[in-house]
Fold these 3 entries.
Entry 1:
Amino acid sequence: MLHNRKRGIVRSAVVGAAALVLSTPQPGFGEDPKLDPELKGYCPAAYLLLGKATQGDPAHASTDRGKLYHLSSAEAKKAFDANPQKFLPQFGGLCTTALGGPYANRFDGDPEVFAVHEGKVYLFSSERARRSYEKRPEHYIGPAVERFARPAIQGYCPVSFQRVFRTVLGSEKFKHVHHKWIYHLADAEALAAFQKNPMKYAPQYEGFCTLAVAKNHLYPSDPNVFLPAEGKVFMFADPASKQEFMTNPRRFLMQADANWKELKDKGR
């Protein structure tokens, strides 16, 4: 009884703080995002089946793990549906050269610039990046594999921030790729919720400290210092950062949203 009462007090405190953050409704908060096709609509199966980048056809659409793909033909759709992981580009479609390079940058790959190595598809941000990769494929693939496997928010379950209002370590058994990051979920129920609406549960600003983003710079956050508010989660570097944010949350959020448009590419 005492344990349940304590949990209720903690939850009430968190919800009360969240209400202070965003007293005016925010457009789109808590809504399911529109499902746009991955790979800018290019067919994921064509890289292996046809050996070229091919625009997909919405008439031959498939979904895998909550993501939409357009396939180029009925045959491509059949092959993809039988084994999606065989055809999907490695590293969630990130540029292999950038991720495996000295700065471990998370740049999106161009679906028209690809290479096939040992039966796997790799994307690149430019022709120059692909040429660098082709000189020494394993030089980039090895580090990219290791770096991509590192889970977001230090492996904590993003759904738990809103489901139980505390940090819960996720499991590699329940993982999902969202915005080029691997998230570890606590259990099958959390995984299903995250796959249905990752935008609701993934921390804002890719998990960087909200106050730091509002001040136009990137700083890692502490997964234990977070704030759920109107269907979203905001994270902070430390309790002092969260406390300062709470002095004027509306202003800080407006600044953070404006700054993130430029900062987000630096954080990848």
Entry 2:
Amino acid sequence: MIGIGLGIVYGLSHFGAEATNPSSLLDSSPIEEIILLTDGVLPDEWITERLELPEGVGLMNVDIDGMKNRLEAEGQVKSAVITRDFSGGSLVVSLHEEVPVIRLMARSKDGKSMLMVVGRDGSVYRGHGYSRQLLRGLPFLDGVRLVRNKDGFKPISGVAKISELLQLTREDAPHLYRTWKVVSLIDSPRLIVKTKDISEIVFEPGNFRRQLAKLDYILDYYRRDPRERMDRIDLSFRDQVAVEVEL
């Protein structure tokens, strides 16, 4: 009876040791494939560089939180989801990117000027993977002061309204949008647009479609007399429009 008991105890302890082996195998199994998915334009090389994966690291040993934080520290990445697929030995990285609304010029710490883009939520970032044509089509932002934080710059307030106005103008009046060069928040919450030919067009927040219709009518009316050059159009009055003409 004593011999049988010892055999059972040995068998159970041996079985326990065997049961832990699969976990250790998972720890040491290398990543077979990295799958990169994004709804934007970030190139694979850019994403891979920020993962900072050590060579030969096991799938269970990757620092998912660290990778997520590094990716989301860039304003262009709104959210990053990183998962392990043990069936295929894959690390899956899915990104949701910010949409560029407007651009601006900023100064780096060494005093050099650099082009930045601003997303719908006001995030300020360098912008990777965007075409030159897309960037040239964005107006410049004016009337704001950039404030640095540990990751770059703090988000700019008031950009949501700019995004609403620009998107509506692109869709309903692209012939107007193509002439817009600068949007200023100097008189926020009112928005001031500067075009090729007009120094200031003032919009009030809300009901942009009605204001755009007024603007289109005014511009069409003054095109009939090219001798008069409009200098300022104020659409912020509810029942009327103020137009300043150069004499």
Entry 3:
Amino acid sequence: MVTLSAITLYPIKSCAGISLREATLTGVGLMSVHIYDREWVVVGPDGVCLTQREFPQMALIVPKIKSTVLELRAPGMLRLEIELGLPDPELAPTLQVQVWDDTVTAYDCDDVTATWFSKAIGTPCRLARFHANAERKVSTKWTGGIQTSTLFSDGYPVLLAGSASLADLNDKLRAAGRAALPMNRFRPNLVIDGIDAFEEDYAAHFTLGEAVLKPVKPCSRCPMPSVDQDSGRFGPDPLDILQSYRAKPELDGAICFGMNAIVTAGDGQRLQIGQEIGVELAF
């Protein structure tokens, strides 16, 4: 039986995630208690997003949902609380945020929050929140022409991976005398049990209740999987092992793990750990 084995929400791009027992699936990604996946982003003075690629210590900024606030903790820092209520879209200060090739309008969080993040990460930065009137369309090159949107993810609303895919990689790492890795190195939103290694690459869609998830693009990997999410430091990079069998010709040889997916039906469906998943392969 194919089941959903893990759900992770990442409120702030490139910071720690929140492991959940259940969440709501929306067209722009996971949502819990009105917090959306990658709803916030940390940006430098130029408005360009910061990630663990350059600042691995971002992994140590840990969010927690508490009633009406998002509580944040980081080593050596007093906790910070961010109100979850949306600002007035007509009155709140804004800034332009660049995530790869996209530039979108975002709410500019206050100076106290900016100071906290600057100290936690060790570089001047600000926290920004996706604006209620903004929209960030995904590339239709990989969606078969289907129009959909995302927030501050790298490019698509949902990232999923099969647990067997990680087991396969870990077998190869151990055979090379190296330590196995946890799934959080790859930061998927959803983990699927009961499919073969990398079978997610060949799925036409996954059905979770009324929801339909369509995998559209293999997730090409940068050095981020080498960041230990518990220490916030770079460690051995698994990409050299993945290179031997996970380079995708359709992505000019990019090394891939996991699949980016879009929601084609069931916007608002509740997902739960352990629920059964239907799988239809693309061949």
